[in-house]
Each structure stands twice: as C-alpha cells, then as structure tokens.
Amino acid sequence: MKRTLISLSLAAMALSYPAAYAKENGGITPQMLERMKAEMDLSPSRKAVRNALSGNHIDKLASNPDAKNSFDTHFSHRVKSEGITDQHSSGRCWLFTGLNMLRSQIMAEKGMPELKLSQNYNFFFDQLEKSNLFLQSIIDLAERPMDDKTVDWLFRHPLSDGGQFTGLSDNLMKYGIVPAEIMGETFSANNTSRLSSLIALKLREYGLELRKMHAEGKGEKEISARKQAMLGEVYGMLAITLGTPPSEFTYTLRDKDGNAVSTKTYTPQQFYREFAGNDLRNNYVMLMNDPSREFYRLYEIDLDRHVYDGKNWTYINLPVEEIKKVAIESIKDSTMMYFSCDVGKFLDRDRGVLDPDNYDYASLMGVDFGMDKADRIRTYASASSHAMTLMAVDLDAEGRPVKWMVENSWGPGANDGHLIMTDRWFDEYMFRLVADRKYVPAKILDILSQKPVRLPAWDPLFAPEK
Length: 466
Prior knowledge:
Layout: H1 2-16, H2 30-39, H3 44-53, H4 58-62, E1 77-78, H5 93-110, H6 119-140, H7 149-156, H8 165-175, H9 187-190, H10 193-215, H11 220-242, E2 249-254, E3 260-266, H12 268-275, E4 284-288, E5 297-301, E6 313-317, H13 320-332, E7 337-341, E8 347-348, E9 353-354, H14 361-365, H15 373-378, E10 386-395, E11 401-407, H16 414-417, E12 418-422, H17 423-429, E13 430-436, H18 442-445, E14 453-455
Parallel strand pairs: 4-6, 5-14, 9-12
Antiparallel strand pairs: 1-10, 2-3, 4-13, 5-6, 7-10, 7-13, 8-9, 10-11, 11-12
C-alpha cells in the first residue's frame, strides 16, 4: 500500500512540473526517481545489508575475512628498526621519516646503541622557511592580479605542516640536526594544526600588506625590510610555542656499553657533518610511479619546495617494477629509504596491514569500482598522503616480492608500530621512493640530465605528505 501511495505521489509531482522540467534534459525528474526506485534491488539479501549498514561502519561490514587467512609476517630481507617514533597529531611524517632513515645510518656507522633526533628543531626552521617562501613569492608576483592562478594558489596555501623529501634535504643541509634531548617536543610540536593555522592567517594578512606596498610604489628596499620584520614576528610565534633553537650544544658520544667516548660542543651544522655527513641534495634520487604521465622522464613541481632559495621538487617517473628493483637492492644492503603512499586506502589498522583485499566494497555496495591508478590520479581520487620508512621485503623463491614493510611514525600499534603492505597494494598505492644513487642503475641516473618538465604547484598528484 505504501509503495502505491509513493507512486501516486510521484505521478502527481510529474503532472505539476512545468513542461520544461518533465524532460530528461540534465535534471532529475520525478520519472527518473520512480524508475530508479523501481529498479533498486529489494531482495532479502540486499535488505539485510541495508539493515546492517544502518547501525555499523561501512568498513566493518566490508571487511574480508579471506584476506586474513594464511597471512604471515615473515620477511626474507629486513633492515633493523631502531624504535618506533610518534608524530602525534601533527603533519610531520615527512620529517620523522627522513630523520628515522638518517638515525638508522648514523647508529650503524658509529656503533651507537641509541640515538633520537629532534623533529622539533627542524620543524621550527621548516615553518620559518615556508613563511619566507610565501612572502617572497608574493613580492615576486606583486604585479599579477589576485585572481592569477599562482597568486590564488599561494593565498590558498600559505603554509603547511606537511612536506616531502626535497624540503627535508634543504632543511637539514642548511640547519643541521640536534639530538632529541637538546630540543625536545612541545605540545604545539605534537599538535601542529592550530599553530600552523595561526601563522597562515598572519601570512595572508602580510601578503595583502606587501601587495599594497607595491601598488603604492614603495621601493624594493622598504618592502624587503618590512618582510624581514614580518618574519621576525613569525619567529616569535614559533619560539613561544616550539622553543628557541640552540646555536650550539654539548653532546657526549657513548659506545654500545654506555661508556663515554667523547664530549664536544657542536653547532647543529657541525653535528650533522660529523655524525651524518650525507649530501642529501646530490646523493639521493626521488623516484615516482605516476602512470598518468610519460615514464622515463624528469619532472619538476613549480613552487613545491620548503625553502625559497632551495630546490623545487624534482623526480624521475618510472614503472613500478623499476622502483621495486631499486628498493630491493637497498634493503638487501641494509639501507632504509624514504617512502610515500596513499596510506588511507584499504588499511586494516587492527592488523597493521595494507591490502586491496582487506575490504570488499563492491559486494557490499552492489557496484564495481573500476578506475585504475592513472585514472585515480587524474580525478583526485588518490595521491600520496603519508611518508614512512621502507625497511623490509619478502621475496619468494623466484625473487619476486610478496609483501613489504615500513617503519611508521604513529607510535606503538600492530606489528610493533610497523605497517605491512602486500605487493599488489604497493603497485596500486605506492607513489614515491627516495634512494641512494648507488642503488639506482646508470640508465636511470642518466635521466637526471634531461631538462625537467615543469608541472604547476596545483597538480592533482602533489600535496604535502602528513
């Protein structure tokens, strides 16, 4: 009876509609609604799904028990993890990943039983440098109107707590590193959103002021002096929330038994040179898997850097199989890598496993999801969202990867804070890998000599990793 009344009601609506809206000319008509309702599957099994969904999370009902069967956590090749870190409620995964990669190398080379590096120290300068990048870019583009695409993008994105490896390398090579005990975490370091949003709000205000000064004919010297004063205010905001970065400090190096080996006073730059010494700008190569663009080409992202006088994000685009070869060689040589992916897709947090088979959304919802990786990139459906440290691979008898493991920065959890990804998930949702040049074949390194294809800052694939 209820269904008959609904049908009569829709029929009445159709009679009352103006003739212009009675046609299927782009709008949803009552006839269309009636047809959709009539075609909807109302079988007992679909009603059962509807009833279950009314009180449960979609992922809970889409969970695929078959994916959990016979899943082991053994890895044929694994770099030793030096302890899980925790970025808390901050967007600093890129910084944790880079420093975790670095500390693993330092501990191995120096025979140190323990080392923790300060993310807070480098984050302070990251936010200051990004503020300068915004302000100086606003000055550089002051002649352009506010609705210019680049000017518009800058005001939409004046500051972020996220980032990527190029920003990490510029930061560490310029400011060095300090041990965690020299500049520890604060509440705002662990919870970055409010601080970053307040600085971003101030930067937008500053940006308008600088544009006004230019429009009024103020000279370059006067505008530059005002920018420096603005940065001084940003420095103060950072100092009262994160602490003041040390210009020098005393550190005691100890052996594996805890005995003091040396005690010296360092600047952060001296500490980096003595303990790390890596030329992060030139010794490492970023490899990307973006099937929406031509492979074996060099690309550069405009304005995608953390430092105004630094290097734009530049990478080699490769088929995923080429990237796997580099990753396997590095892991076999006990070397971790900076790795980024779309971590939110098909993640089973309870098990710490990333697998496209974890959730069967198609069967639950009664529709197929047919886009491939290239289409997901083009339509903003998938992009790199999180950086971690790639440190293990499980190879079968023929040397083919079965699964991979990363050291994460979400604190303790399943697999002692590590995430495991199946090789099929790696194919679909892995995006970037940063590897030491020595593991990259010469034919791929030759691509670095190409003139890079420059992509705009607002390209769908590129956003700061958090």
